Amino acid sequence: MYPGAAAVLPAIAAAVKDKVTILADGGVRTGVDVLKLLALGADGVLVGRPLVVGAFGGDAAGVKIILDKMTSELKQAMILTGCSTIGEITQNVIYQGK
Question: CA angle at residue 25 from 22 to 26, to 5 degrees?
Fold first, then answer.
């Protein structure tokens, strides 16, 4: 079994951050997922499957609904973690229990 994006992202970011743009993908369903991947070192987060579901369910309007929902969830998560900007999202905003 292979590790997910969140499991390997911190090591990737440690190795190449500021040398290349790090885009994370895989299992992103909510705005909170976006916050987590940004906190783990991604510069950007790719969202695919939720948009396909929105498109099948409601064409362009369905995609807009999904994007608006995810944006709202990300903003709420940022407020709850004390982040005013995307740049303020760091590993400090997520719990990494061991």
Answer: 150
